[in-house]
Structures
1.
Amino acid sequence: MTSTVLASIPSPSISTIELGPLTIHFYALCILAGIAVCMWLTGRRWAAWGEDPERVWDVAMWAIPSGIIGARLYHVLITDPGSYFGEGADPLDVFKIWEGGIGIMGAISVGGLGAWYACRRYGISLAKFADAAAPGIMIAQAMGRWGNWFNQELFGKPTTLPWGLEISATSPNFPDQYPAGTLFHPTFLYESLWNLLGAALLIALGSRGIFQLGQTFWAYVVWYGFGRLMIETFLRIDTAEMLLGVRIHVWTSGSIFLLGIVMFALMGLRARRRGELPGAYMEGGLESNEDEPSADEPAPASVRSGN
């Protein structure tokens, strides 16, 4: 198989570094770098819309821990419950997050609940804040996916394409049914590029003032959900829970894709009923109303390390 391959993407030989008693995982560094970029970009956008950029930190104090908890819960309860609650499993392993196992769809949904609470606490429109954060969230996801590259995990089917991904035959993630030297689709790269393209489109379209309040965020949900649905349906081969013979991630990504379409349309209909001009909220035209959260604060619903 490898004789027909013109080139390939090598995988790193290490995924951690030791600093005395500390073990630093490159995956964690990718996630932290993504969070930093997300906060920086969200702060820039929030300030450009006439808002206090310090509020980004206030919301992050609630959203980030909530997102970490949600990411872990998604992995434990949806992706791989058998490893924690099956025969011979130790339920206390649920808390060993340093051993890996988080899911972006849980991070966004539960992190969204943390953001909702913070926005209510500080009198901020959740819809407006979510619009400001959406491109940064996509970039953070794009950067976080490179952690899968360091861990040699969550790759796709075998391929002879020139950008096939090398996985060490000694890696515990190498599928036993394939011979050593088999190359695989680099799904981490596909999803990373998809998210970067999506972030660029959100910024470009948003700068033209064509989105109504809330539509930037739900456009992100649609874009991410569709990309993830395609990867899960046609490429991913890692072990996952099945529902009616289909990978559970196909169901979840398909659900968030459809949810995103519905909510995007509803945001547009609501704005037209109110006579709001597209993009007006980015120019300080929206005043948040803490007493009416249902009017302009649609809480994000369940929308990767990575699952």
2.
Amino acid sequence: MADNAPRLTVLGSATPFPSADNACSGYLLSAGDTHVWMDAGTGTLAALQRHIAFEQVDAIWISHLHADHTADLLTAFYAALYSGIRLPAPIPLYGPPGIAERLAHFLTNSARRSPVEAAFEVHELHDGHQARIGPLELTSAEVAHGMPAFAVRIEDKGADGGGVLVYSGDTAPCASLVALAAGCDVLLCEADSSTVTAGEPRVHHTPEEAGETARRAAAHRLVVTHVGPGMTPQEAVSRAGTSYGGPVEHAAPGSSFALRRVVTG
């Protein structure tokens, strides 16, 4: 029997810069012929093309404007307008307020503003923002990262149905993420912080906190990503498991996860 579940492919999960074998944050969510590129960190455009052609991207969703989540939007702009690719229309780009001007600031090399909107149909996110891309329904929620930042819940509303992914983006533990992730099949949650430093603003999860967020949300599967340089992925998985009773995996580059419920016991 064919597996028709939407599939998450990890393009990269490194932070704060790419390694020789791991791009920065970026993910491809595919449901049939629908493809959403989530976060566009350094190196992810190259990794994307191992799976689909650039012109097959139906939409791009960006969690926040830090470079390790957005840098490849600059090269995507050139791909869209100057590579010989013929897109039927600008690619829908969902991102935090100000994303178009941020791109234009980097891309403009003269007195004339770069034509960002010729490459991207820009939609600014807000808390509770919803969008429909093919069979996929995207709901965004503002999270705690010390700047405008969003998590997203993606539900498969197609005829075959099933499959709910929640991606945290970058965030400290917060009630809005727990609420967004309620009952999801896969929670893709960052685990950047190795330790918590008293008195410093919180902007990331520790692995234990990622596990606690998954437990509180009753998520059926946890995939830790954006693991900081102070620990190995294996350590992050083990630590997350101490506060979460379900299966935990790491978002290794090139790995792929079907959005279906994992039955245990």
3.
Amino acid sequence: MSRELDGALNLDHLIADPETRIIVTCGAGGVGKTTTAAALGLRAAEQGRKVVVLTIDPARRLAQALGLTELDNTPRAVADIDESNGGRLDAMMLDMKRTFDDVVLAHASPEKAKQILENPFYVALSSSFAGTQEYMAMEKLGQLHKRALEDDSWDLIVVDTPPSRSALDFLDAPERLASLLEGRFLRLLLAPARGPLRLMSAGVNVAMSVMNKILGAQVLTDVQTFANAFDTLFGGFRDRAEKTVALLREPLTSFVVVAAPQNDALREASYFTERLRQERMPLAGVVLNRVTTTQAQSLSAERCLAAAEQLGEDGLAGGVLRLHADRMQQVVGDQKRADRFKRWHRAIPTVSVPALADDVHDLDGLRTIGTLLAG
């Protein structure tokens, strides 16, 4: 099916296409990725798809709209959706540490798993290390896709990428974490305990002595214990990361880049669309989200300010005119930035979603967003 109509992103065609099995929303933090993912998932489910939405740290109101009142790493059915077309909607929030724990439990012996899960270095790594959340989002996507193939649980997975400082972190972090877990530092920690050369490695002993002074004896011991217990799992992390990246390149996946009409967010969207092109990953298009609009387009900011000047500083009418002037300046600014982005990226389908007066806090709000996304 066509996903583009006169340069516009046709998201209804995208979610209706049975060959679309994975949609990844991505972009800078704070542009509405999570709301976009949830709205697309709800719209697809009510049009007949079996959908699971993987969200990353949604706002409380959005979580309540989906019936997710607490962090839960298990997909659960969203109540009160229209199932008359045969679809359904499950939703979940990524629990980074729980996902990491599940990987360890699935791929290590019970004894090794116990050593790893109780290790202080592992607890820190799985809870707060930079890039872990992005890697675990990839892990969870791989798990959901595998389950969907095995038991036909879902025919569409919608993924909300983590709120990274840079949108590019989602593609880079799995490689960084895999490199850390297979890197020279941890291999160095394993070296003294291995093989017949363990007593002859003077260079290693010197290095360990230096690290002991820098890190402290207990920290170094924790890291060494982790490295020894984790040794058999090193290769698996890279293998799964490579498989998931390969999955993201397949035609069954579509990336939807979300951006707000501000320079930083649009610049991030430009970087991301170019990166997707370089990585040969399928880009469906760009959502220009939260674009300021008004019903009184003919009343320009200049006319409002001139009229307010004549009325003077006092009075309700002058205040209303100044408020409208501020809004019109925002409308014009958003439109100029959006038009400039479209000119620079003529080959990329886009859809503009107007800013709403209130935050989304229920399913009706998500339906409204879904209708706007459909253009």
4.
Amino acid sequence: MIVDALRVFVTVAEQRHFSKAGELLNLSQPGVSLHIRNLENELGAKLLHRSPKQVRLTEAGDILYKHAKQILAHYQEASQEIQMLQNEVTGSIHIGASFTIGEYILPGKLAEFAGQFPQVNLQVTIGNTEEIITAVRSNQLDIGFIEGETQDAELSVIPYMKDELLIVAPSNHPLSENIVVEQELLQNQIWVLREHGSGTRAYSDHFMQEAGISSKRAYVFNSSQGVKEAVAAGLGIAMLSRWIVRKELASGEIHELRIRHSHLERDFSMIRHKESSSSMALTVFIQKLLTQPSIARNK
């Protein structure tokens, strides 16, 4: 089918590599090469300059790429309208999410969506905010959910919900005895932090810099679950989303440090590539998530 060949060609052009395109499309490299060769034979023109490191578009390839993007977009729209006539939502959605959203918020929402639309295949990739932004920009993900915002010019950013951040400590920490903690008491404490590239790390770094807080020592984990477990084990204090520590706060495993005159809040955002097309499944998915009042705010 010509649409399949065009989809392969566009992916190769954007990835600049046959094997990377094959990985994204679940095709072998010979399969990718066959699609490109058939297109070149049909059009009677060379479309790609091949080299061991990467491929580049020829002049003919550049012309085809521009039109192929439009053809694929129109095909997607036509497919969506036909599905709407049949009143049936099918297809697949590859979703990316930062750790807090992907591990603590999305699972319940996806279960609700899957119950309503069982014929939609859902795949979720979880990473830190920078990783999700990169994957959406390169069209490896249909949609992403990140902590905070991005200024990336290639992406559309839609506010999704508010998130409350807390400073938490082991239940036996000296500061846990205080009903309210003065900000200066956070000075020279042992902190447990997320890695650079994490939205939580970006926010905690900003908070500490603005408040002039220095750490006595810092331990770094590449997941919020790891940070939470380290705090519960007595390693130090940390900044985490309330979503992550709700159960541990209720059970008394960790303690919230209520900082005087401080309310820490950030946005969760939905991101998409500006030039990506929307399947019916993705359109319905976005509508459901944005219109559900239960996700408007972290309670």
